[in-house]
Amino acid sequence: MTGIYFSGTGNSKYALEIFLKEFHAQENIFSIEEAAAVSSIKRHKAILFSYPVQFSNIPKIVRDFVTANAGLWKGKKVFVIATMGLFSGDGAGVLARLLKKYGAQAVGGLHVKMPDSIADEKLLKRTPAKNRRLITDAEQKIKKCARAVKAGRPPQEGIGFFCQMAGLFGQRLWFSGVIRQGTVEAYK
């Protein structure tokens, strides 16, 4: 198993590290921005992919990485960790569907609420104490997930049809231009 991530704030990398530590996997993890990520994907059949959901969608940099490396995914088994500030609907599912398009099998997904990096959105602001509690809760959820995956019962958060509809109608339809352009500035 190898761990691949994109993390603008460190949340998605942290989630991946917690998972692999609990899973007792001694594998290295790689940012999609490192050349070693591609060679690691080539060498491994099982991949753990962690990324931050943006408006119930895949960040442009993640979509570009998956698409640019379309030939790597065939026959791979991928578990998706989607980190978020509040809600995603199908955060894990949206990446799972893209990977499936290139021949990967999504074996499951996990949604993890983490402290948000958007400082000017009142809905997402939390006190330091609430953020610490959020991280503690996230760690426990990730550890429980790792044990379930190890036992052959990977969670399916964000994977199904109803989750897809929640992500689509909850955010993706309204904010699709933001993700296509790769910047929140497009929203303003």
End-to-end distance: 40 Å
Summarize model confidence as the mean pLDDT. Answer: 82
| Biggest sheet strand line-up | 2-1-3-4-5
The residue fraction in helices comes out at: 40-55%
> Number of DSSP helices?
6
Our estimate of the beta-strand percent is 15-25%
Describe this entry's structure for a reader.
- Strand 3, helix 3 (60-68) and strand 4 (77-84) form a beta-alpha-beta unit.
- The protein contains six helices and five strands.
- With 188 residues, the protein is α/β, with parallel strands linked by helices.
- Mean pLDDT is 82; it is low at 163-169 and 183-188.
- Helix 1 crosses helix 5 (128-150).
Q: What are the salient characteristics of this protein?
A:
188 residues, alpha/beta, 16% strand, disordered C terminus
Give the SSE map.
Blueprint: E1 2-5, H1 11-23, E2 29-31, H2 35-43, E3 46-52, H3 60-68, E4 77-84, H4 91-101, E5 105-113, H5 128-150, H6 161-181
Helix pairs in contact: 1-5
